[in-house]
Amino acid sequence: MAIANMLKLKLVGINACQTELLNALHKTGAVQLTASSAFEGGFKASHEQSELKNKKDRVEQALFLIAEKCKILKRSTLEGKAFGVTYGEFSNIIQQERELLAVAESVKARVDEIAALKAEIILLENEIASLKPYLAVNERFSEFKSTLKAEVRLGAVEKKNAVKLGERLSLLELASYAEYGEIEGVCAVSVIFHESIKGEVEAILSECAFIRCLERGEFTAQEKTAEKNKRLEELNRQIADAEEFIANQSQSEKQLRLLCDYYLVEIEKGDCADNFTRTNSTFYLEGYIPEEKKDEITQALNQFEGSIYSEYAKIEEGEFAPTLMKNNKVISNFEFVTNLYSVPKYKEFDPNAVMGIFFAIFLGLMTADVAYGLIMIVGGLIFNARSKRKTGINKLASLLVIAGIPTVLFGLGFDSWLGMPVMQWLGLINKPLMPDPVGDSSLIFGISVPSLLLICLGFGVVHIMVSLCVVAYVEFKRGKILDGIFDGLVWAVFLAGLLLFVLCQVGVAEGLDKVAIGLLLGSVVVGALTAGRHQKGFGKFTKGFGAVYGLINYMSDILSYARLYGLMLSGAQIAQIVSVQLAVPMLKSPGGVAGVIACVAIMLVGHIFNIAMGLLGAFIHDSRLQYVEFFSHFYTGDGELFTPLGSKLEHVYIEG
After folding, report:
1. What is the pTM of this model?
2. What pLDDT score does 539 carry?
3. For a designed S-S bond to 162, which of 187, 277, 431, 534 qualifies (C-beta 3.0 to 4.6 A apart)?
4. What is the sign of the dihedral through the CA atoms of 429, 433, 437 and 441?
């Protein structure tokens, strides 16, 4: 449970072996390349990668289109699911490149075809809509044509204007009007009039919002509509066939995703090569490797003997190196929390093991309920069973599984099962092990304080004490024994004395008052006298005064842990209201089947909301306690995670 030792790799090789060398380094999964140092006569050259990026974009687009069509047709896909492959499978996917690019192109072509077909459908639907008013007209459109002296108009008007149009035209002796029926509030009408009154008729038609029909063919509206509907059916069939074709390409989805990640790695290799310093015939690269992987990497480089020269250099004090944390399967999940704040610097103390214990306990205390804990455990296990890749979200799920254990234990201590005291109802216990959050209190200097609040503050004292012990440990490792004692252990003793003093006040540790006071006063005196040991002159006094004044900060930090009590109390109260006051009474009124349904519905909605909001709040405030109250005493951060060449894969992970 520490940060791995790193070595710096320096390598010079001939240009001819660059590609194979990068492949070999990628296969080890243990080399992070960086920009190489410049030297006299050296230069850097950029590589054109537009073709690779274009291919990757085409494959990504095809994957997106396949996923979209599979959703529409309710087909299963690999979207969002990473899968494992061997390095051989990964590197050999390029042999299927031509075939897979053809699949991507065919998908794109079918999508373009669908777009064109849909455009034609829109046009046809508009044409059908324009014919709808004339479905009641049995004559062909060609029959409505003017003669030498008579003008003919076929068109449509709204029903409310049709009456007005008929009345106005009836006043003209040389005009005839016919109405063919109403469809959706629109009437088809025809007007025949002598050319001598054309102006008058046109004015009336315009006034009544007459829309002239432009069809002139040897067909009726019914015939033309039937023809267009038949074409619509054909177009929809073609679209369905094209969508089916696209969805069926999901059989190549795995290979397409693999090819996409292959391109991603090749692009990364090209970017790395751009940072190599070169001569006309050689290249020079630099990178970082874990010390434990030195033999494996050396073996991989041996195949290039005679074409390269390489050496390893130790990372000097203060020199940059990426951070690789070496934690077991349980502790590694808490790296997610630490990295949200900041990655540890190289060679810095890895806080995950210590921080993880408190994080799980605090989360369990704030969420304290047996059922909630079981939901966290089962939910996290189910989520992780869907993916073997250890992503951030998977680590979060595992973290919830771990925190679910103290959640269950605290739930048992409070006898809280979805907010219900089940063990007390069954007569298994008379009183919960943990104090009642509201009813139980303790006296301190005559002031009544909730006992559970004191327990939460006690957790805070221990938490800060441990952080100060970490300060001492870090200083001891640096060989600064006095700094570790006076800057860490002395103030940890002060907090121990404070904790013991409070325990004496509430009657838990009787007879130890003098010991507690001795620890408090002794640590303050020693801390004040030694705080200015690195200062000169007046600074020794002011530094000591500042150390004593800084005790206020400790008190402020300890009070921050009251949030444990507040969040636990609010979650418990909501759970109790949902179960005891809302859901369970439904079994009596209205009772029966309706009561059971109402009870279950209230329990589901209420507790899903409570656990979701409770976990969100608990995670945020738990993290805040780690970042501000714990990390602030010893943690620097600002590191950079070790990212080996080819490790930023999007769809697959390489096994073994």
Report:
1. 0.82
2. 63
3. 187
4. positive
